[in-house]
Design a protein that fits this description.
Elements (H helix, E strand, L loop, with lengths): L1 E7 L17 E9 L2 H11 L2 H4 L8 E5 L1
Antiparallel strand pairs: 1-2, 1-3
């Protein structure tokens, strides 16, 4: 079974010094005990309904397998 981290470029981060613009990725979750990326996304969304409620776009997800 595999382990994945799922990130998104959506959302915002504000620096303590407001004169700086911060571009980053946000971690949506880490999913374990799945066979592939598709299963990881499905499990993430099943266990975290707030992701859909917050209107994150699944097509923007960036997925990396963790070893």
């Amino acid at each position: 079974m595999k382990k994945y981290i799922i990130l998104t470029p959506e959302g915002e981060t504000i620096a303590p010094n407001l004169s700086f613009e911060v571009d980053n990725l946000q971690v949506l979750g880490i999913v374990e005990n799945v066979n592939n990326e598709n299963e990881a996304i499905i499990l993430l969304l099943q266990e975290n309904s707030w992701i859909i409620d917050a209107e994150y776009n699944v097509s923007e997800f960036i997925i990396y397998e963790l070893f």
